[in-house]
């Protein structure tokens, strides 16, 4: 899905020449944060907020994976801050997703991977700015359920069943705001996401504003 391999190769060679072997690992780590391919993902800048808790813990936990979340973008999330990055192998699902070409940092609202709250149930919110012109595939993998918004409009959801290949088709024409609200039913929370250029968008795709695939 990424079409900038020649540019990436030049950057790798330049990094090796100018940093030497000793500093090459640091160069790679810094370059990943910039993401020279131009793909927006949770490896880049992601903001988060205070976690919010259900009034009563869900029994079973899947009750929190409703069509509409128990919170929305107007809820009292507090002041935005940087999301906590845990790397690309923090969650067991990441290695499986990477086999399908979906790789990014796992991010959470709290410093630890495990979600606080009664039975470990809580809502978290993540925000990132997206810039592009065209049609893109937005891949989201959240633990456990997620609601996806572009410029405040709910465009898709992730239910209890996980997929490493399903995407949401997103049409962009400038800078837009991505918001993802995640409900965790216990244990590890958080998510990762990646916005990639579609390989061969159709005329119908080019007219899309934002819709699920």
Question: What this model shows, in words?
Answer:
With 213 residues, the protein is an alpha+beta fold. 19% of the residues lie in helices and 33% in strands. It has three helices and eleven strands; from the N terminus they run αββββαββββββαβ. Strands 1, 2, 3, 6, 7, 8, 9, 10 and 11 form a nine-stranded antiparallel sheet that branches. The chain has a two-stranded antiparallel ribbon with strand order 4-5.
How do the SSEs run, as a string of H and E? HEEEEHEEEEEEHE
Give the overall silhouette: globular
**Quaternary structure type:** single chain
Helix content: 10-25%
Give the total of beta strands: 11
**Overall average pLDDT:** 81
Radius of gyration: 18 Å
Q: Give the helix tally.
A: 3
Distance between the termini: 16 Å
Question: What structural class do you assign from the helix and strand content?
Answer: alpha+beta
User: What is the beta-strand fraction?
Assistant: 25-35%
pLDDT < 50 runs, ≥5 residues: 1-19, 24-32, 201-213
* Largest sheet report: 9 strands, antiparallel
